[in-house]
Amino acid sequence: MMLLELEQASYRYPNGGVGLEACSLAIRRGSRNALIGANGSGKTTLFQHCNGLLRPQSGVLRYAGTVLDYSRSGLRQLRSKVGLVFQNPDHQLFSASVQEDVSFGPFNLGLDEATVRRRVSAALDAVGMAGFAERAVHNLSFGQKKRVCIAGVLAMEPELLVLDEPMAGLDHAMKTEFLAVLDGLHAQGITLLLATHDIDLAYRWADYIHLIDSGVCTASLPAADLAYRDDALSALGLPLPTVVELQRRLTARGLLPKGLLPRTHSELLTLLDNTYDGKEAPCC
Amino acid sequence: MLIEQSAYANRWRRVSPAAKAAFALCGFIGAFVAGTPSAAVAVAGLLAVVTMAGAGVSPGRYLRVAVPALFFLSISCLSLAFSLDFKGEAQAMTFKLTPAGLQQVADVSARSLAALAALLFLVLTTPLIDLIALLRRLKTPELLLEMMVLCYRMLFVFSAAVHDTLTAQSARLGYATTGLALRSLGGLAASLTLQIWQRAHDLHVAAQARNNDGPLRFLEPRFANCGRDGALAAASGGALITLAVWLS
Ligand SMILES: Nc1ncnc2c1ncn2[C@@H]1O[C@H](COP(=O)(O)OP(=O)(O)OP(=O)(O)O)[C@@H](O)[C@H]1O
Ligand SMILES: [Mg+2]
From the CA of B155, how many Å to the nearest CA of chain A? Predict the structure, then answer.
């Protein structure tokens, strides 16, 4: 079942810049989605539509099957279900302390203080920032600020979490840890949509991959299909995931049985190990 | 920024801000009830000692923060000490140092010193976020508090923006000559103006995204031992005032 659908949405910025051009996107409930597009392709613009911050000049947004009503109460409802984490943490954080900032969203939902306190500590726990509750926001590192931003949205317990380039600026360890956090959220039933430039990461992590170019969603496909869809990727000037390239070459050389589609580097290595367990490799 | 650092790093960070504010308030009262300069100086000295020995603010840092304020205090004292004497025409203007003036200077400066020490005690031991939370509990108008919160946050965002722009300009030789420096400074001002406008807009959008359509509400920090700290602060503050009265 579709949770969020954008249908033929077009948006032009006041200065005439094209944000979206008849863009359609559908997000399945409970799925993990990656949005891939070049700089300036309209990812941020698209995400601001998901949260009702921007209103398409033509086309519609449907949430759980009903067309969004852009009245005050309609927007309120949408924004309590769709949480948006901004690309730049400094744009999102505006309270002085970590705990204050995370409590901002839940208070806006009209929750009482005890509930807010509980949610704030749960959200900070989920992103591994529990020890930083009373620190000042400006004394945090970039990666830590990003985590606080995510906690600030998590505390609102959204159904759909939209993250604008959450991995940019994080080190390798942080990225791995962050993926674990996302998987934890997914296990709780939260639908995830994130923008990224990293095709390998998208292939490894996502259930569905959406491609965007100059404000148009050019393709939406199950991540597993990416291995066959060179056309969709090359239309955007994107390379295949490296693991797919490697698997193809290995299969072509007869080093790997046909029909195996590893999604990650380590999966590929395990496959190789299993294939040659005990046997000598035919080459070298 | 020095004040910021010590407010977060001092030994009394976890003491309830209400207690610290009460003690500072007693310090202010002590400064006013002190009848003689020596009593006021004693109050100031005690407050400084409490800040350094009690809260563990290093003397060096304390002095560095106090120096600008002391500088202004001494300038105003000088202008008080010398009174301008007009003798009919403008040419006969003279400066005079009068004993009454000196007495007045001693009075005023000692009191200001004590008040300054009380203020320093508060700001060096309590982060502004705690103070704002305290003001909120004291029912300060919401609008004022929101402005304080936003200004405080923006202060850091802008100091980072200024720093980044300056670095970027210097890296491309923007300040190599006086002429270039002037041009770069103009560029900095222009870019900051735009950034302020953009940031205000971004903040509004960020607030909307998290469903805000009215007052900004935040969770307040909690402090253990509020009662005990408050009682301790009240007792020591009372002692300070008594001392000030007794000495004068
Ligand atoms: N506030 C704005 N005013 C005018 N045009 C804008 C504005 N914001 C974005 N645009 C334009 O809209 C287009 C899409 O921008 P958007 O920010 O959505 O891209 P993006 O995919 O998020 O890029 P990036 O990867 O760099 O974050 C760009 O051509 C951009 O120049
Ligand atoms: Mg973007």
Answer: 10
Interface A–B counts its CB contacts (< 8 A) at 95
Q: What is the rounded CA–CA span in Å between residue A74 and residue A258?
A: 51
Contact B219 A90 (CB under 8 A): no
Q: Is A45 in the pocket of ligand 1 (CB under 6 A)?
A: yes
Tokens of B25: 């308030």
ipTM: 0.72
What domain range includes position A78?
A: 2-239
* Tens-digit pLDDT profile for residues A203-243: 989 999 999 999 999 989 998 888 888 888 888 888 888 88
Nearest CA to ligand 1 atom 24: A39
Cα–Cα distances (Å) from A132 to A107, A243, B223, in that order, read: 20, 38, 15
Q: For residue B149, which residues of chain A lie inside 8 Å, CB to CB? A: 94-96, 100
Same domain, A139 and A263: no
User: Do B211 and A102 count as a contact with CB atoms less than 8 A apart?
Assistant: no
If asked whether residues A203 and A254 sit together in one domain, one would say no
Let me know whether A30 and A97 are in one domain. yes
pLDDT for A76-87, tens place per residue? 889 989 999 998
Nearest to A136 among B8, B211, B219 (CB): B8
For the beta sheet containing A58-63, the strands, ordered from the edge strand earlier in sequence to the opposite edge, are A18-28, A2-12, A58-63, A66-67
Task: DSSP for A101-167, please give it.
Answer: HHHHHHHHTT--HHHHHHHHHHHHHHTT-GGGTTSBGGGS-HHHHHHHHHHHHHTT--SEEEESSTT
A184 shares a domain with A118 = yes
Residues in B closer than 8 angstroms to A91, CB to CB, are 199, 202-203, 205-206
Residues A18 and A154 in one domain: yes
